[in-house]
Design a protein that fits this description.
The structure is a homodimer. Chain A is mainly alpha-helical and about 220 residues long. Helices cover about 65% and strands about 5% of the residues of chain A. The first copy, chain A, folds into two domains: about 1-65, Arc Repressor Mutant, subunit A; about 70-210, Up-down Bundle (Four Helix Bundle (Hemerythrin (Met), subunit A)). Chain A has helices at about 1-15, 25-35, 40-50, 70-95, 95-110, 125-140, 145-165, 175-185, 190-210, and strands at about 25, 55, 60-65. In chain A, α5 packs antiparallel against α8 (about 175-185) and α8 (about 175-185) runs antiparallel to α9 (about 190-210). Chain A binds a DNA duplex (30 and 30 nucleotides) through α3.
Chain lengths: ~220, ~220
DNA sequence: ATCCCGCAAATAATCGATTATTAATGCTAT
DNA sequence: ATAGCATTAATAATCGATTATTTGCGGGAT
């Protein structure tokens, strides 16, 4: 299905930061550069909007969302509120297969370099994906697809905001935080794990706090 | 915008139960009966799918989702997991305006008859809406739009499943449960309120448990 | 009698063009 | 000189028709 490809491409482009926040997503331009008709671009855009990766202004088209600092803090707070509870459930219910997958995901994350030389200041695509998989795997023991869908939505919003944050906590010990998370989870220490995760999310939020809103930008 | 109207109509129709679970949503039929072109119907359908109110089968069109008993239990569990936590936050943070809105929402719910004579066994539309507003208002004190969006999504899924449940708990004391919720919330007793809400959701889940899956149905 | 293959009808997906709305530009009147 | 209005260019929204895919039916071979 063509619209699926266009949707995937659009989603990746936005998440990768190819467009600046506030940039207009013009159906005609996208159609030409993708070699498809307006209809499929439009369908892809509607899906992207539904996922929160773009805004729609009635009769004024589509645009990359301009995340405010306030919005970012709300997303971070929502994650702090929900994810530790789900992690508790996951640790109580996860089976041996889950344990194995947690180990595997942590191993991959630990062995993936966070920064690609050519990518400048941003995290590498491989690390971002490994990071996502590790956090998701931690929660997958809960066995509830609805809760995991909720995680997916919040993670997407969170990553989009992170992509556009100007600052990064310089003294952040990602590796240690993730290792403590893995250890607590595999030790079935739900209380400690939930606490570590909450602190992890708080630190991430603090690292991004204070970055100013981005002004609506011009053409890509 | 035409697609907005068609979207709203489609959403209401599905939530109202105009289509049976599994029914195909044929763009051509919808276009003719709504007096619009395929494109706008298609856009509305894509949005509906994004909200979880319809399934999309590649190259096989759109259909009303056939909720399984398992799926329903997962939704109910997700609500039990998340909503009490948000309610705690809401009770800790809500201001006087929030208190007033809780009172108002409860009053409206208590004074709205649950069953409309002409609607048969189903809850009336007015009661369903008052019910939703009461539950949402309880959580709105948290002040976090992201958490409230999460509630909205789960509520929608929950109501859709409820619409198609064959059984209803006969001895259910809705009125008392809601009154206790309101009292605990306004007394700022977060622990009690969270407990009452968890029990409320458990009872709802139990009331719908055991209803068999609906077979994929034929034309509307 | 049953299974497989191919044909035909239905419908999903896509396209190119048309219509309507918006934003910008330049003109006019005060 | 500036404020307000008309014109125009750009683009969003919609439409009608075309193409591609799937599904059900019927004929023929085993």
């Amino acid at each position: 299905m063509l619209s699926e490809q266009v949707y995937a491409h659009l989603r990746d482009a936005i998440m990768r930061g190819d467009y600046a926040p506030g940039d207009a997503l013009k159906p005609q331009d996208l159609a030409k550069e993708q070699g498809v008709s307006l209809a499929v671009v439009r369908e892809a855009l509607v899906r992207v909007v539904g996922e929160g990766l773009a805004d729609r202004l009635p009769n004024r088209g589509f645009a990359v969302p301009a995340f405010s600092d306030r919005r970012w803090q709300e997303i971070a707070e929502a994650r702090r509120t929900i994810e530790p509870v789900v992690l508790r459930m996951s640790i109580e219910r996860g089976d041996v297969d889950w344990e194995a997958r947690v180990r595997a995901a942590h191993h991959r994350l630990a062995r993936t370099p966070a920064y690609a030389p050519e990518q400048g200041a941003y995290y590498s695509g491989a690390w971002s994906e490994a990071h996502r998989v590790f956090h998701r795997t931690l929660l997958e023991g809960c066995g509830n697809p609805v809760l995991l869908e909720t995680f997916d939505r919040m993670w997407t919003a969170s990553e989009l905001a992170r992509r556009w944050s100007a600052y990064r906590a310089p003294d952040r010990d990602h590796v240690g935080e993730h290792r403590r998370l893995e250890e607590a989870a595999l030790a079935r220490d739900a209380g400690t794990a939930a606490g570590v995760l909450a602190r992890h999310l708080t630190l991430t939020a603090a690292g991004l706090a204070g970055c100013t809103d981005h002004e609506p930008a011009q053409e890509a």
